[in-house]
Amino acid sequence: MRCRTFAPVLLVVGLSGCKADSHPAEDGTALQAGNAMSCVSGAEKFSGNGEQVGVGSLGGDGKQLSLSLQLMVERDHRNHIISTGLMAIPMAEGTSYFPALASEGSSDGSYDIKTADMDLIKAFTGSAYGFAYADEQFDKDAKLRLRVDKFARSVAPQTGLPRFHIAGEFEFNAAYMPYVNGNLPDACSMEAIQRSIKSISGEAPRYPRYDAKICNAEQKHVECTFDVTFDGLPG
Description:
The protein is mainly beta. Helices cover 12% and strands 43% of the residues. It contains three helices and twelve strands. The chain has helices at residues 28-34, 126-132, 186-200, and strands spanning 36-41, 44-49, 53-60, 64-75, 78-83, 87-90, 94-98, 110-115, 120-125, 144-155, 162-176, 218-231. The strands form two sheets. Strands 2-1-12-11-10-7 form a six-stranded antiparallel sheet. Strands 3, 4, 5, 6, 8 and 9 form a six-stranded antiparallel sheet that branches. A hairpin with a 6-residue loop joins strand 10 (144-155) and strand 11. The longest helix is centred in the last third of the chain and has 15 residues, at 186-200. The protein is globular and about 65 Å long. Residues 1-25 have low confidence and may be disordered.
C-alpha cells in the first residue's frame, strides 16, 4: 500500500473551558505524526496516520469547536479520501448528529475515489444519499453520527497555545449518482420532475426525491475511528 500525503488545514481560535489533558510535550510535526484514523466501507478497510490524516477547524466559542476530519490513503493506484465535512461539535464527550436530528437535510460526509493523479472517478456524498435513499426530510440515516469518547485540552509546552486531544468514531451514508455532461440521466430527472408536478397538484411530496434504481445510484456506509491531537491559537 502506498500513501499520498497532503497538508491539513488548521485554525483554532477563542477556546476555553475544556478539561485538561496530560498529552506529552511535542512539537506540531510530532503531534501530526501521532494522529490516526481507520475506516471501513463494506469490504474495504483503510487506515492512516500522520500526514494521511487531516484536521481542519475554523475556531470555537468556548462551547463549540468547528472541526473536520479527513483520511487520504492511496491503494492500487487509487486515492481514497473520506471526510466528515465541517462540524460544530460540543466541547465535551458525547454523541451528536450533523445536521441535527431536528433539522432538515443530509450530512456533508463524503467518500471520493480518485486516480493517482487526483482525477475524480466517483464521488459518494451525503447529499446524494439524501436525494436517492432518504425516506424523509428528517431521516436519521441521512445524518452523520459523531461520538466523541475523549475531548481534552491542555497547554502546549513550547508555545503556550491550547492543545486539543479528540478521539472517537463517526459514521455516515453516502451515495454516487452518475452525471452525463454535468446532468443526471434524462430518465432520472424526468421521474423526479413528475413527482414534483404531482406534489404541486396537491399530492404530498414523496421521498426520496429521486429513484435510486432509475438514476443508477450507488450507496456506501462509512464507519471510522479517529484519535487526533492538534494545537490552536490563543483563546
